[in-house]
């Protein structure tokens, strides 16, 4: 399944190639204040392929907080966060915000709350390596 998503104004857009077609898309509604404030509900499929296109890189801010192990790609024009990345061992990993999916794909989303507050940085990075999208490409200079 090809899932298209984008921030509200379309400056940060992505295509997520998820094979085989999912029956449901599991999504994690993180309970941290940043994700709650920005409507971040995240999904990933380790064998998926993600291609991100940034129209105007100067209108993208990167925000890292807490453990400083991930970057939230925030559109400075509309304020939406469609993608989060983490660089580990020379590879870029990512999750995408299901709230930025096209409507058809959003119908498959099964959301559940989760907290990562008690995770130490080593455990967090290991979980991301196992679960996040490992085939990530950026066009427009924001990788």
Structural features, described:
Helix content is 15%, strand content 41%. By secondary structure, it is mainly beta. It has one domain: Beta Complex (Metal Binding Protein, Guanine Nucleotide Exchange Factor, Chain A). The strands form three sheets. It has a five-stranded antiparallel beta sheet with strand order 4-9-8-7-6, covered by helices on one side. Strands 1-2-5-11 form a four-stranded mixed beta sheet, with no helix packed on it. Strands 3-10 form a two-stranded parallel sheet. Strand 1 (2-6) and strand 2 form a beta hairpin. The protein is globular. The model has no long low-confidence stretch (mean pLDDT 92).
Q: Can you tag this structure with a few keywords?
A:
143 residues; five-stranded antiparallel sheet; 3 helices; four-stranded mixed sheet; 15% helix; Metal Binding Protein, Guanine Nucleotide Exchange Factor, Chain A
Question: How would you summarize what this structure contains?
Answer:
It contains three helices and eleven strands, in the order E-E-E-H-E-E-E-E-E-E-H-E-H-E.
Which outline best applies?
globular
Average pLDDT confidence is: 92
The number of distinct β-strands equals: 11
Rg calc: 14 Å
Structural class: mainly beta
CATH topology: Metal Binding Protein, Guanine Nucleotide Exchange Factor, Chain A
Spatial strand arrangement across the major sheet: 4-9-8-7-6
Fraction of residues in helix = 10-25%
Strand content: 35-45%
> Any guess at the CATH architecture?
Beta Complex
**SSE topology string:** EEEHEEEEEEHEHE
Distance between the termini: 23 Å
Q: How large is the count of helical segments?
A: 3
The number of distinct structural domains comes to: 1
Report the top-level CATH class.
Answer: Mainly Beta
Largest sheet: 5 strands, antiparallel
Quaternary state, please?
single chain
């Amino acid at each position: 399944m090809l899932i298209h998503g984008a921030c509200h104004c379309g400056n940060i857009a992505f295509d997520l190639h998820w094979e085989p077609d999912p029956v449901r898309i599991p999504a994690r509604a993180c309970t941290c204040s940043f994700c709650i404030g920005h409507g971040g509900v995240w999904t990933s499929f380790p064998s998926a392929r993600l291609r991100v296109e940034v129209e105007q890189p100067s209108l993208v801010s990167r925000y890292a907080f807490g453990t400083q192990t991930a970057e939230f790609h925030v559109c400075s024009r509309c304020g939406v966060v469609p993608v989060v990345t983490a660089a580990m061992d020379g590879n870029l990993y990512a999750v995408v915000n299901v709230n930025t999916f096209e409507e058809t794909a959003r119908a498959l989303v099964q959301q559940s709350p989760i907290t990562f507050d008690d995770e130490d940085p080593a455990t967090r990075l290991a979980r991301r390596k196992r679960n996040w999208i490992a085939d990530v490409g950026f066009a427009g200079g924001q990788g």
